[in-house]
Specification:
Radius of gyration: 19 Å
Shape: elongated
Helix content: 25-40%
Number of domains: 1
Order of helices and strands: HEEEEH
Number of helices: 2
Strand order of the largest sheet: 1-2-3-4
Strand content: 35-45%
Number of strands: 4
Distance between the termini: 70 Å
């Protein structure tokens, strides 16, 4: 029989929290990936590398929604198949807050 003391209980709670946060991050990243692909497709751009990368991860608090995690993901795309440009997606919790694309004329 396994003896559970407070340190074992604390360890199991921390482990469950880490697994929960990891799973939540996977779901939000999949959403950001889908949004980036759709944004590129709508504007007839080529999404390079086929994925997004986490750039920032920080807590945000407001009175209406309480504590949420804000994540900013970046991705690369090409207008002409040659020059790389960078886009970003800001997610607050599981909701998309903003999608931004670098304009081609800013590169020149």
């Amino acid at each position: 029989m396994i003896q559970f003391d407070y340190s074992m209980l604390l360890f199991l709670m921390l482990l469950a929290a880490v697994v929960g946060i990891w799973h939540d991050n996977i779901r939000v990243r999949e959403t950001a990936n889908r949004v980036a692909a759709e944004a590129c497709k709508r504007r007839e751009l080529q999404m390079l590398d086929g994925t997004v990368a986490l750039a920032t991860f920080r807590p945000r608090f407001d009175l209406r929604n309480g504590l949420q995690i804000e994540r900013t993901y970046v991705f690369d795309y090409a207008v002409d198949g040659v020059l790389r440009s960078t886009g970003f997606i800001i997610m607050l919790g599981h909701a998309v807050q903003h999608v931004g694309l670098e304009r081609a004329e800013q590169r020149g």
